[in-house]
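Teaching assistant here, posting this on the class forum so everyone can see the example we discussed in section. The complex has two components, and the goal was to see what a joint structure prediction looks like when all of them are supplied at once.
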Amino acid sequence: MTAAALLVAGLGLALFWAPEDADQGISQKIFYVHVPVALTAYAAFFWAAWKALRLLWKGGDRYDLESYTAVHMGVIFGVLTLVTGSIWAKVSWGHWWVWSERQLTLFLILFLFYSAYFMLRYSTDPGPRRARTSAVYSLFGVVLIPVSFMAIRLAEGLIHPVVFKRDGPDMDGTMFLTFCVCLAAMLALAGGLYLLELSGKRADANLRDLRERLA
Amino acid sequence: MSTGEKYLWGAYLALFAMVLVYIVLIALKVGRLEREIAELAELARAKAEEPRG
């Protein structure tokens, strides 16, 4: 409910309150979906890595399931990042995708890396070995996130815009507030979906266990 | 509607579609879990009614 209320508020602010950008016009408002969705994908991958670390450190099946669910969330928000980014690229640059942009290519590599996580996971039998392998893979993936995030600042000759600079966000207060509400909405949405999916997976596992006992 | 507006709505609709598809998938999963619980409850009932020994 919190996520739904924040989403309605965020998109309402983005569409009807935040001013139009002087350069890009109304299409710049894609920013309020695209950037929060991308940051949420990064957050989900970080959460997956944290759970993976806990699994390797302390052990326990629950961390494996939590890490797996977080990677799933990250991939879903990753797809959405690529889709909204491509739409924004088409309207701003005239192309759906620009291979010379390191930020885009690195995000695609990150996305494909985490997509391969599912292939790895389902190619091994369930058990502690699969849990540990998945956890190590998830931890390796998290290294790519700062690289992907910093690529935009390290590369030269970019057309991808840089909004958050060392001296603060490069936008007015109204835009920044709208962005913060949209970011909170995406994080709440991802959190809600994560808990929903996690409870579904736990119920599934418990039912499988019960079926085996009753058989 | 301008080109910019069309693309803007396209991006917002992508988000909406993702949430909608996710909710439909979760609803299907809940339906499957309910059926499985009913099956298991039936199985447990049948086992309880079986004569012992």
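For the discussion questions: Chain A has six helices and two strands. The first strand of chain A starts at residue 164 and ends at 165. Think about how each of these relates to the inputs above.
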